[in-house]
Amino acid sequence: MRESFRADSESDCKKPQLLNRHSAMTFLEKIFERLERAGSAPVLAEVREGKTISTTGGELLALIAEARKFLADRGLKKGGRCGLLAQNSVRWTALDLAMMAEGIIAVHLYTRQAPVDLVAMLKDSAPSRICCSDAVLAAELQKFWPAVPRISLLDSIFTGEKAAATKPIAHADSDPLAIIYTSGTSGEPKGVVLNAGNVNFMLERTGDRLDELMVEVGRTGEAPEKIFHYLPLCFAASWILLLTALSRNSVLALSTDLTKLSDELKVAEPEYFLNVPTLLERVRGKIEEAVQQKGGFAAKTFSRAKGAHARQQSHRESLLDSLWLGLGNHMMFPAIRKSIGVNLKALISGSAPLSPETQQFFAMLGIPVLQAYGLTETTAICTLDKPGHVEPGRVGPAIPGIEMKLAEHGEILVRGSNIFAGYWNRPEATAKAMEGGWFHTGDQGEADANGNWRITGRLKNLIILNSGHNIAPEPLEDELARRMPEAAQVILVGNQRSYLAALIAVQASNGLKAEHVQNAIDEMNVGLPHYKAIRAFHICPEPLSIENGLMTVNGKPNRDAIAQRFAREIEQLFERKSA
């Protein structure tokens, strides 16, 4: 093993948002206590039709009590499992908290997942009941699995019937709270079991880091923090953000329409929110395009200020750089910041590496972007940038109490109270992932002398889109090749991009028309979830072979060599769609 890095000391900075973190209390007890203290003050909100619809602490407690009664009346008890398949909402939150309060293990499921994949996860986790927000989706589950467990629509759970509010049951650290499915390196869904100890540990650390962030950005006053969230709550990072927000003096506004994010941000007026790189890169692109369209002195000032900031970061300032940055800060940057969010103080990015250029772009505007790195198996987070010490291109140091080191082949290994309890019903997969007492992430990386990590790639072939979706390419490649007998090989690309594209290699003697490829892709895309759809392709005029170095001696694609050989063509596949 190589050098190991550990973060194990708590920050001594001032913590203005701290909410009586008594060590004897569990995170769930703290959340219930906070909701009781909030009373008639808002703690959650939904952004709908240009308005923020708030839910107070007392109202959320009432919804939780109603959901707990529903679950108890239907025989769900501690240790039982219940599927939670619904869009982001206050009711999703109430149901999740109700399940935890009753000791029921919530099986978090993604509504945009293909029904056949959802059925596979449900069969694996075997919940006794499924809570679903969508009657159409419920019908799809029944279509693919006639023996599906009883499905309860949210409207039948939250009927307005009052129920007595009681304290949550006591949890031991080893008690499982949730099963969250992840594709893992094999592409086969595996249920990651997260327990009370994992969440207790993580919420203390995320809360402390947010306290540091609020100090760094100069936030003062006792008003609740304003947070916005648009990513699915069934994902580990989103779930941890939700529980962190409910543990502190904040109001979390939930997006309800991803097609109106820009408008929703204006309504929510957040101080910070969690992102995937795709959105931040899209925002950056739109801003730069709008400035260029203005032209004239504005475009010139922006371009010069951008160059000056880049030189400043690399300690190569020129004499005029301060002038151009001063003009940018005085004439342009405040208006740009306001166009993104009038109260925006910082951003958090995770799920995939954010380009250094995009991170520096927002820093230039006066909006620091903190990067986080982690997996579902690590309770969402291993590292998180320290406010005021951000290094573009890196994802920060290990958070306090977590150890990280590199194996001989550069794989990142992690150890700490954040590591999951195991894969549901998969003891062999669990043992393999935890070989030697360290969790094997499957990611490659490196840490600098300050312990700041950089993620350099995946050990295996898993494609991770900028949206955070993990995709095993082999099944899709095989299916597309099956639809095109003329194709010698199909290779998918798109790691850290916003969509998938395909390289189609053909036999030299066989022709393959572009319209035939497009038709095959269109037919295949119909049955796929949006993130698995193939959006572009390139036809390679000769097959991959051992002789040309594009196949290994075992007859498998040499993906690194393919990426290098077709680098220009691959770049063009993504330039076309973004143009």
Description of the structure:
By secondary structure, the protein is an alpha/beta fold. It has three domains: about 30-270, Rossmann fold (3-Layer(aba) Sandwich); about 275-340 and about 345-460, Rossmann fold (3-Layer(aba) Sandwich); about 470-579, GMP Synthetase, Chain A, domain 3 (2-Layer Sandwich). Helices cover about 40% and strands about 20% of the residues. The protein is built from 19 helices and 25 strands. The strands form five sheets. An eight-stranded mixed β-sheet has the order 3-2-11-10-12-13-14-15, sandwiched between helices. A seven-stranded mixed β-sheet has the order 7-6-4-5-8-9-18, sandwiched between helices. A five-stranded antiparallel β-sheet has the order 1-16-17-19-20, with no helix packed on it. A hairpin with a 6-residue loop joins strand 23 and strand 24 (about 500-505). Helix 7 packs across helix 8 (about 235-245) and helix 10 (about 275-295) crosses helix 11. The longest helix has 21 residues, at about 195-215. It is globular and about 70 Å long. Residues about 1-20 have low confidence and may be disordered.
CATH architecture verdict of the largest domain: 3-Layer(aba) Sandwich
Mean pLDDT: 90
Radius of gyration: 25 Å
Structural class: alpha/beta
**Biggest β-sheet: count, sense, barrel?**
8 strands, mixed
Oligomer: single chain
Query: Which topology of the largest domain does CATH recognise?
Result: Rossmann fold
Uncertain segments of ≥5 residues (pLDDT<50)? Answer: 1-22
Tertiary shape: globular
The fraction of residues assigned to DSSP E strands is: 15-25%
CATH homologous superfamily designation of the largest domain = ANL, N-terminal domain
Helicity range of the residues? 25-40%
Number of helices: 19
Q: How many strand elements?
A: 25
Strand order of the largest sheet: 3-2-11-10-12-13-14-15
The structural domain count equals 3
